[in-house]
Write a structure and sequence with these properties.
Elements (H helix, E strand, L loop, with lengths): L1 E3 L6 H5 L2 H5 L6 E3 L4 H4 L2 H5 L11 H13 L14 H11 L3 H18 L8 H8 L11 H15 L3 H13 L4 H16 L5 H16 L3 H15 L5 H15 L15 H5 L40 H26 L2
Parallel strand pairs: 1-2
C-alpha cells in the first residue's frame, strides 16, 4: 500500500497501519516531503526502511528534457520545437532539481513557441527569459529545507564566514522567506554568538529589523545584508549565552531563596524595624564606586561565577575589570578576617 504525503496522517491514523504491517497483510510504502523523524510515529518508523531522495542535478534534468523533446511517442516529441543546449540548461537551472517543474516549463515553452508560429518553432532567448522570469528556488516555509537554511545562515555567521553568510541570506530571501523572520533570527545571533564581545552587533541587528519593518522588501533586505555581514566579521563570544543558560538551570533546580535583608528596600517604618536594607553599602559611596566584598546572592548561597568573558573584542576589557574586582573582593575579605577575634 502506497501512501503519498503520509505526514498528513495524524498519529492515531498512523497507528492504525501497525497491526497490518506487522502481520504482513500489506507492504507499507510512504512518501513524505517532511523529515520522518518528526512526522512519523516511532513505532511505524522503526518498522520501516528510510530512503532519502535527493534533488536531481542539472545534468539529470537535461537528460529528462532531451528525452521529452526526442521521444516521438509523447506530445512534445511530436512537435518541431528546436531548443539549444544552452536554453535547455537555463530551464534545468530554473527547475531547481524538480523534474516535474522542468517538464512544465518545457511544455509552456512549446505552447508559446507554437502560438508565435515561428519557423520550425525555433525558440529565441527572449522567450526563455519570459518563461523563467520570477521563478524562485525550492523553499518550504514550514519544512526541513527552511530550518536547514536558517541553520546554515546561523552557523556561517558564527564561523565568521561572511561570504557564506550573505549567500544563505540571499538563498532564503530568494526562496520567499519572510524577511521579518530572518530579522528576528539575526537579533538572536547577535546576542548568542557575539554578545559583549561587540555590543554594537545587537544595535545594528535591531536597526535592521526596524528597517525591514518600516520599508519592507526589497529595500529593507539591504539592511539585513548589512547586519549579517557585520555579525559575521564581529568578534565572537557566547559567554553571556552560556552564563544565562547555567543560571536558568540553577534557578529551576533550586528552591525559591529569599532576598537578603540588606538588599531589600524599606519604604515604610515597619520595614525599617524589620531590618530591611540594614547594612547595605551604597556602591557610589565606596572607593572606585565598588563595594568590595558585598554579598548579592541569597543568604547561604555561595558566590557564583557564571559569566566567563572571552579574550576577544570588548569582552577582553570586561574580563580584566572583573579580575580586578575579584581581587578587591579577596583583599576586603582577607582584611575582614584579620579583624575578626
Amino acid at each position: 500500500m502506497f501512501v503519498d504525503e503520509v505526514h498528513r496522517f495524524n498519529k492515531s491514523q498512523q497507528d492504525a497501519f501497525l497491526p497490518y504491517v506487522e502481520d504482513g497483510t500489506f507492504i507499507f510504502i510512504g512518501a513524505t516531503t517532511e523529515n520522518p523523524s518528526f512526522e512519523l510515529n516511532n513505532a511505524l518508523l522503526s518498522r520501516s526502511r528510510v530512503y532519502v531522495l535527493k534533488q536531481l542535478t542539472e545534468d539529470d534534468l537535461l537528460i529528462i528534457l532531451d528525452r521529452a523533446l526526442t521521444n516521438t511517442d509523447v506530445g512534445l516529441g511530436k512537435t518541431e520545437l528546436k531548443v539549444s543546449e544552452g536554453q535547455l540548461r537555463q530551464l534545468a537551472v530554473a527547475a531547481d532539481g524538480d523534474a516535474r517543474r522542468a517538464l512544465n516549463l518545457l511544455d509552456v515553452l512549446a505552447s508559446l513557441a507554437q502560438a508565435e508560429q515561428s519557423e520550425a518553432h525555433q525558440v529565441d532567448d527572449g522567450l526563455i527569459d519570459e518563461i523563467i522570469k520570477g521563478g524562485v528556488r525550492r523553499f518550504d516555509k514550514g519544512g526541513e529545507a527552511f530550518y536547514d537554511q536558517i541553520s546554515a545562515l546561523h552557523k556561517s555567521v558564527r564561523g565568521s564566514a561572511v561570504d557564506a553568510s550573505l549567500y544563505w541570506l540571499a538563498r532564503m530571501l530568494d526562496g520567499g522567506c519572510e524577511p521579518l523572520y530572518i530579522a528576528r533570527r539575526v537579533v538572536r545571533m547577535a546576542s548568542e554568538d557575539i554578545g559583549n564581545a561587540d555590543p554594537r552587533a545587537l544595535s545594528i541587528s535591531l536597526a535592521a529589523w526596524d528597517t525591514v519593518d518600516r520599508l519592507g522588501s526589497p529595500e529593507g533586505e539591504l539592511a539585513l545584508a548589512q547586519a549579517v555581514g557585520y555579525l559575521a566579521v564581529a568578534p565572537k563570544s557566547n559567554a553571556i549565552y552560556k552564563a544565562f543558560n547555567k543560571v536558568m538551570s540553577d534557578v529551576k533546580d533550586a528552591s525559591s531563596l529569599e532576598v537578603p535583608l540588606h538588599l531589600r528596600n524599606a519604604p515604610t517604618a515597619l520595614m525599617g524595624e524589620l531590618d530591611y536594607g540594614k547594612g547595605y553599602r551604597y556602591a557610589h559611596d565606596e572607593p572606585e564606586g565598588y563595594a568590595a566584598g558585598e554579598q548579592y546572592f541569597p543568604d547561604g548561597m555561595p558566590n557564583q561565577q557564571y559569566y566567563q568573558p572571552v579574550r576577544r573584542g570588548l569582552e577582553a576589557k570586561i574580563a580584566d575589570k572583573l579580575e580586578r574586582l575579584r581581587e578587591q573582593d579577596a583583599a576586603y575579605l582577607n582584611k575582614t578576617e584579620r579583624k575578626s577575634p
